[in-house]
Amino acid sequence: MSSVQIQQSKAVWESPQFKKRLKKRNAAELRFKYYGLGAVILGLIFVLSLFVSIAVNGFSSFWQTQAQIDIYFDPDTLNADDLAGANYGKLVKQAMYKQFPDVTKRNEKRELSRIISIGASFILQRMVINDPSLIGTTQTLWFPVDDEFDMLYKHDIGRNVESGAPSRLSINQIIWFDQMVDRGSIESRFNKTFFTAGDSREPELAGLRGALTGSFLMILVTLLISFPVGAAGACYLEEFAPRNKLTDLIEININNLAAVPSVVFGLLGLAVFINFFGLPRSVPLVGGLVLSLMTIPTIIIAGRAALRAIPPSIREGALALGASKTQTVMQEVVPLAMPGFLTGTIIGLAQALGETAPLLMIGMVAFIVDIPSGPLDPSTALPVQIFLWADSPERAFLEKTSGVILILLSLLITMNVVAVYLRRKFERRW
Amino acid sequence: MNAWTLTIILLVMSSLFYAVAKKRSLRIAEDIGGIRYLHSAPRYYGVVAAALFAVPALSVLGLWVSVDENIIVRMVLSEFFADMQSADQAEKDWLVSQIQIYAHTGQLLATENAQVLKAAADRYQHLVDQSETLRNASILVLGAVISFVFVLFISAKIRARVIAESIIKLFLLASSLIAIFTTIGIVLSVLFEAILFFQKIPVRDFLFGLEWSPQIAIREDQVGSSGLFGSVPLFTGTLLVAGVAMSVAVPVGLLSAIYLAEYASTKVRSFAKPALEILAGVPTVVYGFFAILVVAPLLRDFGLVLGLDIARESALAAGVVMGIMIIPFVSSLTDDVITALPQSIREASLACGATKSETIKKVVLPAALPGIVGSLLLAVSRAIGETMIVLMAAGLAARLTANPLESVTTVTVQIVTLLVGDQEFDSAKTLAAFALGLTLFVATLLLNVTALYIVRKYSEQYE
User: Fold this and answer.
1) Residue of B nearest to A403 (CA)
2) Whether residue B222 has pLDDT greater than 60
3) For testing the chain B interface, which of A224, A257, A263 should be mutated: the one with the most B CBs within 10 Å?
4) Containing H/E element for A68?
5) How many CA atoms does the CB half-sphere of B404 hold within 13 Å?
6) A233 or A274, greater pLDDT
7) Which member of A37, A38, B193, B374 lies 3.0 to 4.6 Å from B451 by CB, making a disulfide possible if both were Cys?
8) What are the structural domains, with CATH classification, of chain A?
9) What is the CA radius of gyration of chain B?
């Protein structure tokens, strides 16, 4: 550039219009950057609020408010001939009446006895049947209180009648409960029921063990089917398949199946497994079959990536030593790709564990109290339990729902951490 | 001995045949001067023997289990209730379940025809037992004979490795064909029921009808139960929720992908990218609960401040939460596309004096556009097919509205609600779910195929 030209351009750069424009452009640059930063922060806020709101609501579900009462195992009530059918509720009621001798009116007595969960009589029944020598003695025992009182003790919910939320608690019940708290006979204890019991209509007696077992059985079925089939499919497509129309068709199908809505898989399960093959409804076997079909594409895609990462020199080395194609793949390539297969399988299973919609359609939403003992027993699953409890009107189930979500999320996080660990540990640079 | 124990016995037996065949091939090898004179290594003889035992046995078992119940029921019905041949299916089903329950538990559900029923149940039980014995015996004999013949004929010339390898390859091929069978299964199961549905309800009424109330009136004067299957309100509801979701996910997802790919330091990127991707791993039912627990009340309070009345279950709440769920789909796919672009095009633009944001807006984004469009289409398909969030947070009222503050219902929600609970399989109500499933499948299929096509066609043009 000649000096005249430089003079001219300098005049342009230093002109007020140019400076104004540059300022505007720089401001736009900064604004754009902050939009991006804002979007990232907003996304992170979403993540945080999701986890925090559920954790805050859910942690209290691992504790349960329990009341201490002295139970007199009255031989008059417990007829030795019919221990299973005796009136255990009466023992609890009598113990409560003894604690509050001034309560005499019938309806007040009824209100008083409602403080203790109706599950107390089942606990007593089990104790007496296991050990009949208890009859005639007096024992100091802890029982869960009714869910309304649980909420009252934990979160002070239900104390203010005006606060809008309808409460089943009467003034008297709250006064009696406060008296028990003052006497020290109310305590918050670890909620063992939550982990050992099946579902129940009473929030204080409901647990997630049925759902947990159901989910476990289902994931087991899914693992047993989807891992061998997925790994074999990946091997075929990556190592053996000739380039032809059939292979292309399979590939298109796999990519597309990975994006089919899960509710459509539910329709498939209902129409094929239940209506056509006549398998029973609500059982983990059918759930596992449907989830396998959803998981197989994931495993095939991950498995193919793992196989592709193995350098051809491994295969050529084996072939040069006289191994057949199948021997090369089975004895050299597959063992090296195994970590990739496993990572893909774990991630696929983690997806399957959180899947809800297809399970609703094959009838796994039934209210099931018993804990399933095999893949052909009716059961629910963890995500379905979340759906069922989230629908319940009781305030106490809200807390339980968050509790189950915490368990489910920690399972998923564990699985993903294992997958990442496996990938890091066995990752090889060739 | 039920089917499960039989399967275990079959597996044990087949490993037994593996051992026997291997042993025999070793013995033959000894006679001819060592295993180097065998065509294949001894274990391949074992593998072939085991497969020859297990494969026919297991396939016969599978076939038997899936048909025997039907045949037995038909035999019993024709023997004892010959006059029922013309009766309708429901009556036959009722009869069959009576027979089965009596055979299993000894309980009679009805008192009429008690004698005939008891006799039929005895006959049924007898046939079931007979069929089981016959099945077990025939399977074991069939497998054992085939495998035993092979063991007898083992010689140095039998090319056991070739046979074993083709069996393995067949298994691999069959495994990869599962994907095709799944698709065929989906299409057939949805299509058949949908065709039955369209025989009852004309396609035009379904696609263009403006009113959806699938309850079929039992009485003439029943309110709100007209049995109308106009699916337009469902489509608009689906689109409304998906629209809200996309208007949350697209700006947040795109901008954060651009920021993470172009501006963020490695440290920020390595933390923020996985943190955002956590959102993709959270089960949808958790989002649904988050919507009713946090987002819906929050929006409602916010609406009260502005003087708006937002329904407890609204398209807005469901859409916002679904948008949060989709953010990682948009952001990570966009991020992949942007980072795949060659550095040189950015440098060229910067060298011309463009600022970084101008480079991004005028050069990077246009170049990445096909990939971004593909990822957005995938996100839309995900939003349309999402079930749990809308089921929990958007409501059930089929309303033809464009107002996101009201409650709407979607295709997926209706599929689930029509099929959950008691249902008879032939009613238009149940079949409607499959018709909806067909439309959903076709819509998402088109979106996915288009998206994959766009991504594939334009992804490599800069390499």
Assistant:
1) B286
2) no
3) A263
4) strand A63-72
5) 19
6) A233
7) B374
8) 62-198 (no CATH), 209-426 (1.10.3720.10)
9) 32
Question: Is B355–A356 a contact, with Cβ atoms under 8 angstroms apart?
Answer: no
Judging contacts by C-beta atoms under 8 Å, the chain B residues touching residue A263 are: 385, 387, 412, 415-416, 437, 440
Nearest to A44 among B173, B254, B272 (CB): B272
pLDDT, position B87: 66
| The 3-state secondary structure of chain B, one letter per residue | CCHHHHHHHHHHHHHHHHHHHHHHHHHHHHHHCCHHHCCCCHHHHHHHHHHHHHHHHHHHHHHHHHHHHHHHHHHHHHHHCHHHHHCCHHHHHHHHHHHHHHHHHCCCCCCCCHHHHHHHHHHHHHHHHHHHHHHHHHHHHHHHHHHHHHHHCCCCCCCHHHHHHHHHHHHHHHHHHHHHHHHHHHHHHHHHHHHHHHHHCCHHHHHHCCCEEEEECCCCCCCCCEEEECCHHHHHHHHHHHHHHHHHHHHHHHHHHHHHHHHCCHHHHHHHHHHHHHHHHCCHHHHHHHHHHHHHHHHHHHHHHHCCCCCCCCHHHHHHHHHHHHHHHHHHHHHHHHHHCCHHHHHHHHHCCCCHHHHHHHHHHHHHHHHHHHHHHHHHHHHHHCCHHHHHHCCCCCCCCCCCCCCCCCHHHHHHHHHCCCCCCCCHHHHHHHHHHHHHHHHHHHHHHHHHHHHHHHCCCCC
| ipTM of the prediction | 0.90
Q: How far apart are CA A291 and CA A289, in angstroms?
A: 5
pLDDT band at B85 (very low <50, low <70, confident <90, very high): low
Confidence bin at B86 (pLDDT 50/70/90): low
Task: Write out the two tokens for B321.
Answer: 């939460």
The 10s digit of each residue's pLDDT in B236-272 is 999 999 999 999 999 999 999 999 999 999 999 999 9
User: What's this model's pTM, rounded to 2 decimal places?
Assistant: 0.88
Calculate mean pLDDT across residues A239-262: 90
CA distance A258 to A312: 28
- Cross-chain Cβ contact B382/A262 below 8 Å: no
| Residue B289 to residue A401, Cβ atoms within 8 A | yes
The answer to whether the CB of B178 falls within 8 A of the CB of A249 is no
Tell me the percentage of chain A whose pLDDT exceeds 70: 97
pLDDT tens digits along A165-214? 555 678 888 888 888 888 888 888 899 889 998 888 888 889 999 999 99
Nearest 5°: CA angle at B10, between B5 and B15? 130
How far is the CA of A327 from the CAs of A14, A312, B21, B73, B168, in angstroms? 75, 15, 20, 48, 11
Which chain A residues are Cβ-neighbours of B252 within 8 angstroms? Answer: 39, 42-43
Does domain B214-458 sit in CATH 1.10.3720.10? yes
Q: Does residue A409 belong to the interface with chain B, where contact is any CB pair within 8 Å?
A: yes
**Among chain B residues, CA nearest to A330:** B168
Instruction: Report yes or no: A4 at the B interface, CB cutoff 8 Å.
Output: no
Q: How far apart are CA B321 and CA A282, in angstroms?
A: 29
pLDDT over threshold 90, residue B185: yes
Domain regions of chain B by residue span: 3-158, 214-458
pLDDT of residue B462: 61
CA–CA dist B314, B302 (Å, integer): 14
Q: Looking at the predicted structure, is the pLDDT value of residue B149 above 70? A: yes
Measured CA to CA in angstroms, residue A17 lies from A13, A22, A339, B42 at distances of 9, 9, 62, 89
The verdict on B388 touching A (C-beta cutoff 8 Å) is yes
B427 vs A361 pLDDT, higher one: A361
Distance of CA B344 to the CA centre of its chain: 44
The mean pLDDT value for B92-112 works out to 76
